[in-house]
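agent> Task received from the user: take the single chain below, predict its 3D structure, and emit structure tokens. No templates, no multimer pairing.
agent> Plan: (1) validate residues, (2) run structure prediction, (3) serialize to tokens, (4) report one or two observations.
agent> Step 1 OK, no nonstandard residues flagged.
tool_call: predict_structure(input=
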Amino acid sequence: MTALFFGSFNPIHNGHLQIARYLLDKKWCEEVWFIVSPQNPFKQNAALADEQQRLKMVQAAVAGDPRMRVSDIEFGMSRPSYTIHTLEALSARYPDRAFALVIGSDNLRNFHRWYRSGEIAAAYPIFVYPRTGSDSETADYRLNYPNIRPVPAPLFPLSSTEIREKVQQGEDVSGLVPPAALPLIVQVYHTNNRP
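)
tool_result: status=success, residues=195
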């Protein structure tokens, strides 16, 4: 099983990697692919760093673990990026692989609004990891979407927004982001948001 971890990764942080490692170490999957999304249909984010910069951050972050890969497949697809189109493209390109989707419980709240969400839920397992304040809804969604599988991972209370703000304020984020990605993260968010 290949778990697909979609996100803008604006920037990637240790919480993302800890979730991926949990899935791998607990044998939920054999590998995790980070799918860097150029544009999320639900987020019109003025603070979104350039997609190539975000791709480089994720590549640096996962370079030491052969169980993790990074994909820029959505960069060449129409925008905004719809998950179902990416899943269909990957399934066509890798017909021998079984894919699962990785999302946070906060995203589960809006899952019914995703484009062709019923088809996604019918065709792919959905691994849902805990996020602060949004786990109580997972049980309700499982009634409508049997492929939803709550992941009993620890809570990793980190957010990309928090990290961007800390970098802009000149605070140390070395304990919050992967060491290999730190120089890029500081450069991109400090430079792009300097008054």
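agent> Step 4: summary for the user.
The longest strand covers residues 2-7.
agent> Done.
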